[in-house]
Design brief:
Distance between the termini: 48 Å
Helix content: over 70%
Number of domains: 1
Low-confidence stretches: none
Number of helices: 5
Shape: globular
Structural class: mainly alpha
Largest sheet: none
């Protein structure tokens, strides 16, 4: 496998999972802010979003480099399955997005090891913060 093809898959994975994490954090933040009306949870999600942006800024790869390899038209995994289109209530939306955040942080942790082990550790710490926040918000709801 050539270096170019390694960059291609690595950049696509990083880009997709950065986006997935940002999106999930924003959905949870909106639930905490507008549905739960809880300033503490809102602030915690906001801080996580900002920390993610800080980690991304520390990448030795420019964001436009990641986006350059994005190929949503040929993405074999973009089609939604029926289960993804069903939501019972805001708690279901919250739970699904918390899972999305944890899973994508794990992917970022694993693949950033190919770039910078310290960055991988930052993603790991962030993932454990989400575990703790998930417990608190679940007990609150």
């Amino acid at each position: 496998m050539s270096k170019g093809s390694v960059d291609n898959f690595l950049y696509r994975i990083l880009d997709a999972n950065i986006n997935r994490t940002q999106e999930g954090l924003r959905v949870c933040e909106e639930i905490a802010r507008f549905i739960l009306n809880n300033s503490s949870f809102t602030l915690q999600f906001k801080k996580l979003r900002h920390r993610l942006n800080s980690i991304i800024a520390s990448l030795r790869i420019e964001r436009k480099e990641l986006i350059k390899y994005r190929d949503t038209e040929k993405d074999v995994g973009k089609k939604s399955i029926i289960q993804e289109m069903k939501r019972k209530d805001f708690k279901d939306i919250l739970f699904v997005n918390l899972q999305r955040i944890k899973e994508s942080l794990r992917v970022l942790e694993e693949f950033s090891k190919l770039i910078d082990k310290k960055m991988a550790e930052r993603f790991k710490r962030m993932r454990y913060e989400v575990y703790n926040l998930e417990k608190k918000i679940t007990l609150f709801c």
